[in-house]
Automatic annotation (TrEMBL):
It comes from the Bacteria. GO terms for cellular component: plasma membrane. Residues 78-87 have a biased composition (Basic and acidic residues). Could be involved in insertion of integral membrane proteins into the membrane. InterPro entries: Membr_insert_effic_factor_YidD. Belongs to the UPF0161 family. Residues 61-87 are annotated as: Disordered. Keywords: Cell membrane, Membrane. Its main location: membrane. Pfam families: YidD. It is a peripheral membrane protein. This is Putative membrane protein insertion efficiency factor. It is found in: Cell membrane.
Amino acid sequence: MTPLAHIAALPVRAYRLIFSPWVGHNCRFQPTCSAYALEALEKHGAIKGSLLTIRRIGRCHPLGSDGYDPVPGTDPEYDAKHGKDRA
């Protein structure tokens, strides 16, 4: 993970440490948004990882989808099956 990605991951780590235990297990996606954010930052760096995370959080609403939604490029079989060249 790049140094800038480490800095971008600090709020996510703080959320997981402080707020996540109080919120409970209500995430509609797998992996959870915080796990997705850390994985996106690690794989794609601070800028693209942050954009992917923002896009993912934007999809989390009552009318949004749910289910398995991996970080682009981490599951080639999923990307190929869904016609997504998202890496």
